[in-house]
Amino acid sequence: MLTYLADWLPQAPWSLLRYVTVRAGGALVTALLMSWWLGPRMIEWLRDLKFRQEYRPKDAGGAGDVTGAADDRAKRGTPTMGGILVVLTLDVAALMWARPGPLVVLVLLVLLAFAGLGLYDDWTKVSRQNAEGVSGRLKLAVQFLVAGGVVAYLWALPSTEKLVTELHVPFVPARLAYWSGGLAAALALATSLLTIVGSSNAVNLTDGMDGLAIGCTILCASVLMVFCYVAGHAEIARYLLVPRVPGAGELAVVCAAMVGSGLGFWWFNCHPAQVFMGDTGSLALGGALGTVAVAVHQPLMLLLAGGVFVAEALSVVLQVGWFKYTRRRTGQGRRILLMSPLHHHFRKKGWSETKVVTRFYIAGILCAVVALSTLKIR
C-alpha cells in the first residue's frame, strides 16, 4: 500500500520506500506495535467469549497421563486462539509495506487458509472441551488441498515452474544444485507439497509450551527473510550462487512482518503465558513458512533452519509408529520417548518448562546459523 506513495511521490523521503530493506523494517515495527496495542484487547476479548483451554493436551504417543506438574495444571483456563492476533497483524503489516505481487498474495492466501482450518479446529476443541478437535484425516485433506493448489499454481506459470520442478540442494552452487529429468521433477513436486504440509504440522506439534513455537518461528522467519532478500537481488544472488527468483525480495517484507508479529505475540505468550496461539496460529505460520521456502527455491534449507520443528515432528512419527508396531507384534504398545512431542519427553524427565524452552531456543539458533552458512559454503 505505502509503495504507491513511492511511485507517486518520488522525492525524499518517500523514495526510500522503494528499498526492500526499508519496507522490511517498517513491516517488522508495524506488526510489533500493532501486536502490543491489540494484544491486551484481544486477550480480554477471548476471555469474555470464554475461548479458554479447560481441557488437558493430548499425548501424541498413545494413551497415558499428559501432564502432572502444578504449573501445567495452572495453564487450564488460559485464553486460546491467540493466533488471530498473529495472523491479523502479519497480514496488515505485509499489505501495508509489501508490493502485492503473485508470490506475496500466494503466501498470504495460504496463511489465511491454514488460519481458517486452525480456527475451526480450535473452536471444536473449545466447544467440546477436549483435545480431539478436527479429525486428523480431515485436517490433512485440507492441508494437502491447499498445498496442492500452491504447487499447481507455481507449476502452471512459466516464470515459476522451476520452483517446484527443480530441487535445489543446500551447500551446492545454484548452477550445480539441480537434479534433472522426469523423476527429479516428480521428486521436486512432492518435496514442495510435503514442505508446506509438513511445516504446518511441525509448528503445530511444537506449540506445546509457553513461547516455544513462536520463538522458533521467529528464528525460521528471520533466516527466510535473508534468503528472500538474497534471491530477489540479482547481483547478490549471482555472487552467492543462490537461485534468482524475481519478486522474492517482497517476500522478505512478509517475513519481516512475521518476525514483528511473532515478537509482539511472544510478549504475551512467554512464560507464564497470558494467551495461547492455538492451531489458528501454528498451522497458519507453519504453512506460510513452508510456502515461502518453496517460493524462493529453498525447501531443503527449511529442514536446516527449522531443525527444532523437524525433531518435534520426527519424535511424534517415531513414537506413534513404534507404539503401533509393538502393539501389533506383542499385544502391548511400547514407547521410544516418555512422551511425544519431544519437548514433553524432557518435561517428563524433570526439566522445568523454562529450561526446556530455553535449550530448544539454543538448538534453534544453531540450526539458523547452519542454514545461513549455506549462503557461503557452496
In words, what does this structure look like?
The model is unreliable at 62-70 (pLDDT under 50). The protein is globular and about 65 Å long. The protein has one domain (3-373). It contains 16 helices and two strands. It is an all-alpha fold. α4 (83-97) packs antiparallel against α5, α9 (212-232) runs antiparallel to α11 and α13 (299-305) crosses α14. The chain has a two-stranded antiparallel sheet with strand order 1-2.
Low-confidence stretches: 62-70
Helical/strand content category: mainly alpha
Instruction: Please state the average pLDDT score.
Output: 89
Gross geometry: globular
How much helix is in the residues? 55-70%
SSE sequence, one letter per element = HHEHEHHHHHHHHHHHHH
Task: Quickly count the helices.
Answer: 16
Distance between the termini: 37 Å
Biggest sheet layout:
2 strands, antiparallel
Instruction: Give a count of the beta strands, DSSP E runs of length 2 or more.
Output: 2
Domains, number: 1
List the helices and strands and how they pair.
Elements: H1 3-8, H2 20-48, E1 52-53, H3 70-73, E2 78-79, H4 83-97, H5 102-128, H6 136-156, H7 161-165, H8 182-206, H9 212-232, H10 234-240, H11 248-269, H12 278-295, H13 299-305, H14 307-330, H15 342-348, H16 353-373
Helix pairs in contact: 2-4, 2-11, 4-5, 4-11, 4-12, 5-6, 5-12, 6-8, 8-12, 8-14, 9-11, 9-12, 9-16, 11-12, 12-13, 13-14, 13-16
